[in-house]
Write a structure and sequence with these properties.
about 110 residues; extended; single chain
Length: about 110
Amino acid sequence: MIAHMYNKENLNKLKGMDRLAPEVMKTFWAFDQAAVAEGAIPVKYKELIAVAVALTTQCPYCIDIHSGNARKAGATDVEMVEAAMIAAALRAGAAVTHATHALAND
């Protein structure tokens, strides 16, 4: 049987990474927590930003984690969809602007 690349059980392996590279992982977790902590931008908006970025990078783990965190912080379906549409617009815009590299110089 072929193992699926995106299996939520893979996240259990993070504990092993913590053991294998304790200082680096400790630093990563501290950075990760600080990035989404309450600050000038409220947690709800930080998590909505994280959802949009996760949709853009297409990381199913991040989509799952940050959409759950956004909901816990009070995000609504309307806000989630608006964040998704921002992500979609940026991906589409990147394709449009990068298309200029495929054109012949005038």
